[in-house]
Amino acid sequence: MSATHHSARHSFVSVLQAQGVEVGLVAKLAGHASAAVTLGHYTQAVRGGAEALALLDLAYQGQGA
Fold it and tell me: Considering its fold, how many domains does the chain have in total?
């Protein structure tokens, strides 16, 4: 799987949001017209992130399903 412009951009915005960067600043950095655009397109990427990381930790420790 190779990185595309779209996947790199999505990662950039999603990581900033996950790290708690204010959504207005993220929107500005991404070139979005408003924070609503950023929230509408990228917020779903960070929902459930803590649970996903916990499952990855378990899997790499040999304790996963």
Answer: 1
**65 in a domain, yes or no?**
no
In a domain, 12, yes or no: yes
**Distance in angstroms (rounded) separating the CA atoms of residues 32 and 63:** 42
* Sign for the pseudo-dihedral over CA of 27, 35, 24, 47: negative
Q: For the chain, which residues score pLDDT lower than 50?
A: none
pTM score: 0.60
Cβ atoms 42, 14 nearer than 8 A:
yes
Are 24 and 35 contacting, i.e. CB atoms less than 8 angstroms apart?
yes
Q: Is residue 34 part of a domain?
A: yes
What's the one-letter identity of residue 18?
A
